[in-house]
Design brief:
Elements: E1 16-19, E2 25-27, E3 42-44, E4 94-96, H1 98-104, E5 110-114, H2 124-137, E6 142-146, H3 150-161, E7 165-170, H4 177-185, E8 189-192, H5 197-210, E9 213-215, H6 221-237, E10 245-249, H7 254-268, E11 277-283, H8 288-294, H9 320-330, E12 333-337, H10 339-351, H11 358-372, E13 382-386, H12 394-402, H13 423-429, H14 431-435
Helix pairs in contact: 2-3, 2-6, 3-4, 6-7, 7-9, 10-11
Bound molecules: pyridoxal-5'-phosphate and zinc ion.
């Protein structure tokens, strides 16, 4: 799986990628998305012996000096600085709100790491700054992905920022208008393939094998390096005293893999005393990893995916071996929640003024479920990662608030009220609020 004819840059000579299956090493100066020897998943090798946290944020200029990703350059691949495309990504808030702990049934501290505060409003930007910079460093002219969602929005933005052409293949199935709007507006060439996501990815792989087109799909190991900084930044915000649990939604499981790699590295270099347990939450209708975990890792079976949380609607996650490594390293848990649980948790996160897209709320829904089941103690501390912004999927908001579930408004449904244009009508409607 290599577009070996892409120009190879000697300035990336020190960067090595390693196969997690056969441990073979390969130079990081080419576009590899799988091991050329065995097809296994690749990791970028981080030279841990030389890492000094005093170097974080030092010596950077231009946009990199403002980036919450490149700030952690000692733990990232050594991409030549002139190739780096940064949009000041990262630097996301770590909120604390007692109402979220209440909702989860906990008296321990619950915090929210809000990745919707990235330039294109999802965590994908953290990976894309590294992926697109790597593409640029090796001389790629066109970067491409098959996606209906946040990956394409992020790719389009970073490619255009860096002066590269981008190509997005979208399937024929339902796409989020918000995410497609970003992709179109940021200037990607968008091609709709008459088929599903797998068909779009398959034909794109044929294209990247034959032409100088750099594939930024979810197994790209450089993207995962950028996504590690969600964890590194959060741990720094916790003053390197980690909470007991880190809870995140799982789709293709790239983020789970990146979190695991970050935790392994932070423990190894002694920046945190122990790894928090990773809790991966899938949507019930797209939960092959959760089923496999519950089954003691026996009989893995992909499934036909169906969930309202489109960002995690993945039936056969590309990064499953890496995700298993991450969960096992931390003694973590994998679970799944229903679409109703996701939407109710989302409504709670939205109502307190924070907001997120549906997939993101799987984290809080999963935490609540595991506390109720006694698998996580109520006194524990946890951070839920919100992966995307509330405006990514406004259809989900209007469906929740303006239409019924089983003939009744959903919990906390908030419907606009229509009145005649008179003060009297307004006073009648607002009587409780005005006099209460
Ligand atoms: C991509 C994405 C996910 C899923 O991440 P994976 O790495 O595929 O597991 C979850 N939420 C949002 C908003 C996303 O964009
Ligand atoms: Zn291999």
């Amino acid at each position: 799986m290599t577009a070996g004819h892409l120009a190879q840059s000697s300035s990336l000579a020190g960067v090595i990628v390693r196969c997690m299956e056969c441990s073979a090493d390969f130079p990081g100066d080419r576009a590899l998305t799988g091991c050329p020897a065995c097809g296994g998943l690749l990791d970028v090798v981080t030279p841990l012996s030389a890492i000094d946290r005093a170097l974080f944020g030092t010596g950077l200029t231009g946009a990199m000096a403002h980036s919450g990703v490149w700030r952690y350059w000692p733990l990232l691949p050594a991409i030549p600085r002139e190739a780096v495309v940064s949009r000041w990504e990262g630097n996301t808030p770590l909120y604390e709100d007692a109402r979220l702990a209440d909702y989860a049934g906990m008296n321990g501290e619950v915090r929210i790491k809000h990745e919707g505060h990235n330039p294109t409003a999802s965590f994908k930007d953290r990976g894309m700054t590294v992926g697109v910079s790597h593409a640029k460093a090796i001389g790629a002219r066109i970067v491409a992905c098959a996606s209906t969602g946040n990956t394409s929005a992020s790719l389009a933005s970073y490619a255009s920022s860096g002066g590269l052409a981008s190509l997005v293949l979208i399937p024929d199935t339902k796409v989020s208008m918000g995410k497609l709007a970003q992709t179109v507006a940021y200037g990607s060439t968008v091609v709709q393939v008459a088929g599903d996501f797998d068909a779009a990815l398959a034909v794109l792989r044929e294209l990247t094998a034959a032409y100088d087109v750099y594939l930024v799909n979810s197994v790209n190991p450089f993207r995962l390096e950028g996504q590690k900084t969600i964890i590194i930044e959060a741990m720094e915000q916790y003053a390197w005293n980690p909470p007991d649990y880190i809870v995140l939604p799982g789709g293709n499981l790239g983020n789970t893999s990146a979190f695991g790699k970050a935790l392994i590295e932070l423990v190894e270099i002694g920046l945190i005393p122990r790894a928090p347990k990773l809790v991966v939450v899938q949507a019930e209708g797209a939960s092959p990893f959760a089923k496999w975990f519950r089954n003691g890792y026996r009989d893995y079976a992909p499934m036909h995916a169906d969930t309202v949380a489109t960002a995690i609607k993945i039936g056969n996650p590309a990064s499953i071996p890496r995700a298993k490594r991450a969960v096992d390293f931390t003694g973590g848990i994998v679970t799944s929640v229903s679409d109703e649980e996701i939407l109710d948790a989302k409504a709670e996160i939205d109502r307190i003024g924070i907001g997120c897209e549906p997939a993101s709320a799987a984290s809080l829904a999963g935490l609540r479920q595991l506390v109720a089941a006694g698998q996580i103690p109520a006194s524990a501390s946890a951070v839920c990662v919100l992966t995307g912004h509330v405006l990514k999927d406004t259809d989900a908001v209007s469906d929740y608030h303006f239409s019924d579930r089983d003939g009744h408004p959903r919990p906390g449904a908030n419907r606009p009220i229509r009145v005649e244009p008179t003060l009297a009508a307004l006073e009648r409607t607002l009587a409780d609020a005005l006099h209460g």
